[in-house]
């Protein structure tokens, strides 16, 4: 298929890029672009070229799916050489996004015109790489390194107006973009030989160098462990110290090294897995979501309040419902305070806070949910409470309203059975803090209508969440796997490790917090109550709770929190208590390395993930990874638990689980049949997708 078509507007040729969905620079587009430029330059009737694009993007960048594979000729830098060195001016007409390689195309042009809604950026850093087609050389030449470097370090795109202020585009135009680009092309042609971005030297001053070096120093202090951030500094420095050709070659060499690194592979996996998770079996475009104009949230606690904020942030009016005036006022005030922090930080204006607060109506009693198109229940985590609420909702909610529970563990089928309309009931599991965390687990009990699931997905996106549809089982995907990690952490204590050692292994891996610091923060009593309700025990965790050591809120938990201390301190009494448990259980305590601790914490999670796949609770291993990346702060550059397991080798995970099962006598640690099969076949979880 031809991905570039050429038309004429007087003496200017317009090459329109058309490579759906987002004009990514795959092999065909690179080839067609090179051909178009060569043809137009050879045409004596043409005095200039405009590069325009069809569809919603100018160019979304290199085709990420080609990374790590041998690239077909011509590679992007070769195409950009053709553009930059063309004898006639080339002007980019930018609508939608110009990202990564897409912006690099525009940078190699001799002029740039953009629509007001256009966004321009070099987001490579988020994929573990750096720009590889001249971005680090041409952007500093065009706007100065002190402005170019932060754009590349954050990866955040800038809007057209900002791009104009920076000098990144020449004009921002309303209306006919191509006509404006043609006009600029004619003006440039009238001036004679076009000026190459690579020839611009006046922005790279001594003052610019000093400002860049100061920013680089700061970035090194903050991101010294990120190889791509360090490579970015090196590449940008080359813009000052090397002629363009050498700077480009240096950048390309750094890019080539990063693109094959495991970290970049993991980040690319996450990019595609997130998009794949949006494709839900049984829910295609023919299933239309129900319209949502008004919402209600039942329960004004931390979760309910956070969910109400999500609606208000998206401009959807929401009724916040409690059982008493006092409770709802308390919840309402907490929301006002939370917005207040943003106002204080300067990330929100007072006027915006008032607008959002005006969208939240406090109310007492379930009857207030009558007008809502969707009701999300975020009340106490107990089946009896949930069933009572859903029974009452059934009587007041309008026909066709979606009835969702924010339960983190409970059976949605049982909750739905409390109503006469189970097809309208599903789980919408937000993660704390609900107004911040990206993940939305959408729990699909058997019998729920397809358009109800589609409504939850569409709403999730409107709320700025990453929706992942999962099956109905205890704890769904995230908490079901988390429980395995929690059990593993307790086993490690009994076997000889100490809380700070376990936590350090996990933070060393890249998590923000280890399991014990996390439990102390959330409140150890939560897990205790849950265990008691299910008749389960955990010797160390129970003993700690029996003493009232619930964590930060009581000043002690697994750690001590003396007045004013934010980080926990080792507690000799807790360590003695742990040793007592080991002695009672007849365990000879031994020490563990960080690697052993990690394997013991993470392998059982992967095993549970394999069971989740076997049971069809998650559609793909990538969905599980997205749950962990967006809901549990799994380090982004490790790609999620299933991706991590593949990188380690499933055969290694199987062997380690067998050893753990034999040592502990815990049959739940026996490798899942799916894990064994894939390991024996030498395959990874991702092979299941293709099968
Ligand atoms: C680079 O350029 C480096 C250059 C070095 C020189 C060699 N490649 O997100 P959506 C697909 S690094 C391949 O759902 P949106 C995506 O998978 C790259 N495919 O749509 C999906 O496919 P599906 C720098 C891509 O409107 C479809 O397009 N660029 C690429 O919400 C729609 O995507 C970036 O990092 C790609 N580059 O958002 C930009 N981009 O339908 C990455 C998208 O089969 N992309 N697809 O599932 C984005 O940020 C967003 O996709 C978007 C569109 C803002 C372009």
From TrEMBL:
It comes from Bosea rubneri. Pfam families: 3HCDH, 3HCDH_N, ECH_1. It comes from the Bacteria. Pathway: Lipid metabolism; fatty acid beta-oxidation. It catalyses: a (3S)-3-hydroxyacyl-CoA + NAD(+) = a 3-oxoacyl-CoA + NADH + H(+). Coiled coil: none annotated. It is found in: Peroxisome. Residues 475-561, 597-683 form the 3-hydroxyacyl-CoA dehydrogenase C-terminal domain. This is 3-hydroxyacyl-CoA dehydrogenase NAD-binding domain-containing protein. InterPro entries: 3-OHacyl-CoA_DH_NAD-bd (IPR006176), 3HC_DH_C (IPR006108), 6-PGluconate_DH-like_C_sf (IPR008927), ClpP/crotonase-like_dom_sf (IPR029045), Enoyl-CoA_hydra/iso (IPR001753), NAD(P)-bd_dom_sf (IPR036291). Residues 295-472 form the 3-hydroxyacyl-CoA dehydrogenase NAD binding domain. Keywords: Fatty acid metabolism, Isomerase, Lipid degradation, Lipid metabolism, Lyase, Multifunctional enzyme, NAD, Oxidoreductase, Peroxisome.
